[in-house]
Amino acid sequence: MQNNIKIFPYIVALSAGLVAFSAAFFSVFGLSKLFAGAQMSVVIMAGSLEFAKLVTASFLYRYWEKIPAFLKSYLLIGTIILILITSAGIFGYLSNAYQGATTEFEKQSTILIFKQDQLEQLNEDKIFLKEELGTAISELPENYRTAKAKLRDEYQPQISKINQTILDTKQTIGDLKAKLVDTGVDVGPAVYLARIFNTQIDTVVKWFLFVLIFVFDPLAVSLVIAANMAFEIGSGKKEEKSGDWKEANVADLNKKEEKKWWEIYKDKDPEGKTAIDEKLSELEKGGVSVD
After folding, report:
1. pLDDT score at 124
2. Contact 93/29 with Cβ under 8 angstroms?
3. Which class for 157: exposed (0-12), middle (13-18), buried (19 or more C-beta within 10 A)?
């Protein structure tokens, strides 16, 4: 049990380091994508700010009662702003990764919608040509068979061409749907959630990212403070004040227990001791033993 207590602060510190490093990594590279013209400079600046943020949080925890109010306020505000900046960097990094994964998916989806509209239009053109052919034939007398055959020969190539285009379009639509299945694996969970909540994929991903960054960097800072607390508790510093209080109370109790023998008989006045001693001396002189 004692070994577990000693190891636990290091586990908390390791957890804080891992979460803080992950948050810093995503934030730094997210900000570097935002300022692509000076990526290396942004990486150095953001990295130093991330490290300073964790040190500032530890400093505030350790010396909260000792540092001046203006410095305390500035460091606290600075830490909160740096948490917001880190969260913004994480949001930028993850949203960029999401867009990269969905670009091909959205492209294929757009082409699929276009082809489906095109197929619908081709079917309408085919129906129109057949209706037009039927109307033209019906207007001719029954004995105009040669004219009717000529009309069919005029319309048939157009109908055949539309039929071929319809077949090609259906084949393209089938290929696009197959590609969408393969591409959709990367964004499958987002698509599934969008269907559950009956909303757009972008909306689902946006709120998911907000929830993620709400706990990511704040958790890293909180774990750094928790690690400081765990090490203090493990070293006994946290119990010093309570220990001093206990020692003081034990001393008071000892003082109360160290009563003089005459206080047992509720005679608090030291003069009462003298009176009792004189009485005992008289009894001893009279030959009475007081043992």
Report:
1. 86
2. yes
3. exposed
